[in-house]
Amino acid sequence: MARRALKLASLTAATSGIYLYGNKFLDPNDFGIVRVGRAIATTAVIAYDYLTSLRSVPYGSEEYEFVKSQVHLRSAERLRELCCANRGTFIKVGQHLGALDYLLPEEYTRTLKVLHSQAPQSTRQEIEQVIREDLGKEIKELFLSFEDTPLGAASLAQVHKAVLQDGRTVAVKIQHPKVQAQSSKDILLMEVLLLVVKQIFPDFEFMWLVEEAKKNLPLELDFLNEGRNAEKVAHMLKNFDFLKVPRIYWELSTRRVLLMEFMEGGQVNDKAYMEKNGINVNEISRNLGKLYSEMIFVNGFVHCDPHPGNVLVKKCPASGKAHIILLDHGLYQVLSDSFRMDYCRLWQALIKADMKRVQKYSRRLGAGDLYPLFACMLTARSWESVNRGIDRSPVSAREDVEIRSNAAAYLPQITQLLNNVPRQMLLLLKTNDLLRGIEAALHTRASASSFLNMSRCCIRAVSTYQRSKSHSLYRRAQISLGEALSLWQINLYELFLWLKGSQLGNWVIALLSRMHHSTY
Predict the structure, then answer these.
(1) Would you list the domain boundaries of the chain?
(2) C-alpha to C-alpha distance for 96 and 430, rounded to whole angstroms
(3) Active site residues
(4) Which residues form the Protein kinase domain (predicted)?
């Protein structure tokens, strides 16, 4: 019945012929009535499944948990099919949900992750038309060569490798031609459907998703904004010599076409690629953590889409150093100073296992009485680990399973939290989960060095902010001295950890032990 409803919605206007785009028959999937009908049918089927499947099962029983998991899986598969059929904005939102590993039930995140590799491709004719409309020339006039097969296709655009007339190899990012026209209508449709679902399921709090899409999608569809972001982050992080950001060629860039320096490498979660090319996995993980700690805590300007396709690694043949290549700069979050300071102090409290301050700064960030859940969401650790200290022990397989299962058990509370926290927090949570996914793939999760780097950035950020607010020379000197002492303590602790794990350290410990025993 469910599949018949979906097929009926998809076929209602499929036989209509409208001669529109580029002198070609429009794809039936682009008709408003088909897209709306399919979305309504899918939402109705999912709601009906939850209402009927769980109605007669005793709440909290093993059978209830099993049935609920099956409903989650069926619903996630229907949602994935809807995203693939309606494309564009739907795929973008589905990808966002698929990235929330530790916030949503695993059935949803596992099923929706495939949307990163199932994005639609525009045809050669559509690509030619966008370039002709935006740059006023044909492809053959602009490029010596232009590869038909895209290097990658995403929900909003695809990227082709090309060679300019002067011989420079470039990456050409071209927006799918129908996305602009459909995006605002798609977001309105999602908003209406989510409001209807909330009437049926009062605990269903996903309006934050639509609000984020409303705010961010227009920015992501403006490639000139993406180019500016790329240049800003490259300048902001210029002290990190391992970071590479493609240069923008402004003379051939528009709101729908972006020309960049061509860069290639292996995906950041491809451990086999790194081992094959002599790239130190721990160094890459450590440097990626440095980049994001600097962006979040120090600068408050954060690249919020670090999925593996957007973060590449490559060993420089000349220097032998491993580079991190950061791509796709359309989605950034700007953090206010007040939010950034509260977030810094919260992470300092989490690293020190200072529960009073964890509660204080979680409440200031909108968590209220749900601050224990909020701390677990931020760290992807159990409440027991948070109390003990998240840097004290690595994440065990048992704890990881516990966190994922809790995402399903506490879904109403999680969605309530996501509605209550500042909007700036939402993309940070997504970014955190994407970075954890990379660390999990590289087996470097929750290393002591990552927390030490975070601590350094938090200390620097808070000290810089305090100095900027102080008018007293003595007070500023006092802040600087405190900062220097705190950073010195971290360096000393890092040296201790290095000695403890090194052969030299083992010799020193053995020598001290023998000296101690000989004394007595």
Answers:
(1) 20-120+180-218, 337-501
(2) 7
(3) 305
(4) 145-474
